[in-house]
User: What shape does this take?
Amino acid sequence: MNTPDIRTLHRVEDLEAVARLYADIWGTDPACPPVSPEVMRALAHAGNYVAGAYEDGRLVGASVGFFGSPVGTTLHSHITGTLAGRGIGLALKLHQRQWALARGLTRITWTYDPLIRRNAHFNLTKLGARPEEYLTDFYGAMDDAVNGGDPSDRVLAAWDLTAPVPDAVPTRHETVPAGTGHALLDRDGLPVAAPTGATTVLIDLPDDIEGLRRTDPSAARAWRLALRDVLGGLLAEGARVTAFHARRQYVVERPSTTPYRPVQEPTS
Assistant: This one.
């Protein structure tokens, strides 16, 4: 696999190419990409992060970020899109990491859809980022090919740049602690809440939420509401997501001082 050529972007024609790539990835009208060239131009000119990844001179990925809070410590990575399955996303994130470190920053944050398994695996297992907050319908309805009009619940993930990148060291978290409970189960493709008083709990994700949004919107909605209640509720109580197990389960540790709260069965 070739390593892509990654460089920061400033020229209008390069940013227009990024906007077209984003429109292709998210399935939007080319005239209404997720981020416009004008906004990217302003962000880049103000010193923020706008970068593209190239293979043989062809744009294959791009990322846009801006300085966030706490001031002087954080870059917020707003959007990253790549052609799938070629390691471009990891290369972009590592470039973004070096860019941030060179400017004295110590963490990068971003939001992602917590129902998409490949994103959770990439963020938690390959990068070592950790969810900090559950954000209900953060962007409002997004009627594109990825979100399918589903409420845009997101998790705010934070990446500690002072820690090593897990993908460069032996894989961790292949097993879960003895006594781990199951707070949300995938049963025949539907979510089932499972009340448990265990300190460490597992939260299942569906096999393909994007496919469900196209073929079974009611099942997709049931998963959204169940994850909002279970994962969102645990994070609000101070629990920590410590791993993403077997490419399909969040591993969550409750604080020892948090009282047990029975999880309600999701309603459709």
